[in-house]
Specification:
Layout: E1 4-9, E2 13-19, E3 24-26, E4 36-37, E5 39-42, E6 48-50, H1 52-57, E7 65-67, E8 79-81, E9 86-88, H2 90-102
Antiparallel strand pairs: 1-2, 2-3, 2-4, 5-6, 5-7, 8-9
């Protein structure tokens, strides 16, 4: 049996759905939403948060998170998490969002 996976890796929000030939399933975010914000955030201890919690945390500490990285995929532009002194590729950031949605 074939399974099909549809991914909307959006600049602002992302979503995943699957189709097994009979049923379509929209994979819910951890907060049980159909879409999740495309955002990553690291707290002072280095713990990572993705999606809505990350999006909600970024205004309080903008140097600890990232959004809008999807539009940089395919370029050599690094995403800097200044508070940790870490750089990631846009693809690494996007992969974290997909892990949240499909995990």
């Amino acid at each position: 049996m074939k399974h099909f996976v549809g991914i909307d890796l959006g600049t602002t929000n992302s979503a995943i759905c699957t189709y097994d030939g009979t049923n379509t399933r929209v994979w819910k975010s951890p907060e049980q939403n159909d879409v999740t914000p495309s955002a990553i955030f690291f707290d002072r201890r280095g713990n990572r948060y993705d999606g809505k919690r990350a999006y909600d945390s970024i205004p309080n500490s903008p140097d600890s998170g990232a959004t809008l990285f999807k539009r940089l995929m395919g370029t050599s532009t690094p995403i800097h998490i200044k508070s940790l002194g870490v750089s990631m590729t846009p693809e690494q950031c996007s992969a974290r969002i997909l892990q949240v949605l499909y995990g």
